[in-house]
Design a protein that fits this description.
By secondary structure, the chain is an all-alpha fold. The protein has one domain. Helices cover 77% and strands 1% of the residues. It contains 13 helices and 2 strands. Strands 1-2 form a two-stranded antiparallel ribbon. Helix 1 packs antiparallel against helix 10 and helix 5 crosses helix 8. The longest helix has 41 residues. The chain starts with a helix and ends in a 7-residue tail after the last strand.
């Protein structure tokens, strides 16, 4: 009995170490990918082409896992409601969200772009409460804490956007680029709003279609098709947008965007199943710090004190929201026999 308990305890410690260490590595990888994308955009790459390449690669990466692990969960018939949900998730999560993020990265820095998604837990709470997918009780201290955390996050995001000097962060920019900087931050904020909306939609969809890998694979491919159609309408052709984007860069986009980043998403999904979405969300700021360090080392992009103060406020707000979520286990709302809120912070 003692040996079994000791073995179980050791196994638990190993699993905990794998989860924590793995999540740290995942955030560093995602930060590196954001910095890489920023470099590719600076070479003149068309953001829409990057979305198409990454989405196709991601879909092809997820598909084998979906077939092996989730084939028995596939419905015999796809309803119109489910198809509509897939279309909206594809448009929001692939085309609109990624286009806004890439435009934001192009006009700001990878560090700012990595920090903005930390707003999503608070915005998800607001959106989910509006659709009555999450309990909203003004008299509950945890609800008030989530509201406070969301407000602190928003103040931090505004401070980070308006107090950062484009000239100090990117020496090649002039003072006239300040409005472009604000526009880029606005793009990033809209991207996070879209992210929050389609995350809530994903959570609702998973209630009737409990196959997340399949959903990711299908919606990524649909999003790639939608994005390619949009690029053809806007540009009249589908290409990378610059002769400087050679086969090596394209191969790196496919490998990183589909294989490596896809693997990170799969690992995070596994961690969510083991420890829940809150633990995964806590590691979000690590990506911001890594992006800032990589940008400073590789491209001399620095953050001013005002922007750093905004990031600290945003992180404080994030952890207030996550603390309230962790204490509010009784408020989880079930819809049609499924747990809608379980995936809201994933």
């Amino acid at each position: 009995m003692v040996q079994g308990a000791s073995g179980g305890g050791w196994s638990s410690k190993v699993e905990e170490g794998v989860i924590v260490g793995g999540l740290l590595v995942v955030q560093c990888i995602l930060a590196g990918y954001v910095v890489f994308v920023d470099h590719v955009l600076s070479l003149g790459a068309n953001p829409l082409s990057l979305i198409v390449l990454g989405a196709v690669a991601s879909s092809l990466f997820f598909l084998p896992f979906a077939v092996v692990l989730e084939r028995k969960k596939w419905p015999s018939k796809i309803s119109r409601t489910l198809m509509a949900q897939f279309v909206f998730i594809a448009l929001g999560g692939t085309t609109v969200f990624q286009e806004l993020m890439l435009l934001g990265i192009k006009k700001t820095t990878p560090a700012i772009a990595s920090a903005m998604p930390n707003l999503s837990p608070g915005l998800i709470f607001i959106i989910a409460a509006c659709f009555r997918l999450e309990k909203f009780d003004k008299g509950c201290k945890y609800t008030r804490a989530k509201i406070l955390g969301t407000l602190v996050c928003l103040v931090g995001a505004m401070a980070m956007s308006f107090l950062q000097s484009p000239v100090s962060s990117s020496p090649q920019l002039t003072t006239t680029s300040y409005y472009d900087w604000i526009l880029g931050c606005f793009y990033l904020f809209l991207a996070v709003v879209v992210l929050s909306i389609y995350t809530v939609l994903q959570a609702a969809t998973l209630v009737s279609f409990p196959a997340p890998l399949t959903m990711c694979s299908v919606t990524s491919m649909m999003g790639a098709v939608f994005t390619a159609i949009l690029q053809f309408i806007v540009d009249g052709k589908i290409d990378m947008g610059s002769p400087r984007i050679d086969e090596t860069i394209i191969s790196t986009i496919v490998l990183m965007g589909g294989g490596v980043v896809g693997g990170c998403v799969v690992f995070q999904t596994w961690c969510i199943g083991k420890r829940g979405p809150l633990l995964v969300s806590i590691f979000g700021p690590v990506q911001t710090v890594c992006s800032a360090l990589l940008s400073a080392l590789l491209f001399s992009q620095l953050l001013c004190l005002g922007s750093l103060a905004g990031m600290v406020l945003m992180f404080c707000g994030l952890y207030i929201v996550l603390w309230a979520k962790s204490k509010e286990g009784h408020s989880i709302i079930h819809l049609e026999g499924g747990d809608v809120e379980k995936a809201l912070l994933s």
